Amino acid sequence: AGLVVMISAPYMSTFSNIGNRSFTEGVSVVGDALHKITEEREGVWQLSFSNEILIAADRTGIQNVGATPWMWEAFGNKALSTYGENPPRVALYNKDSECWGHLLVDYAPELVTYMDTYYTQYGDTQIYIRNDYYEEALEIINSN
Question: Model's pTM, two decimal places?
Answer without folding.
Answer: 0.80
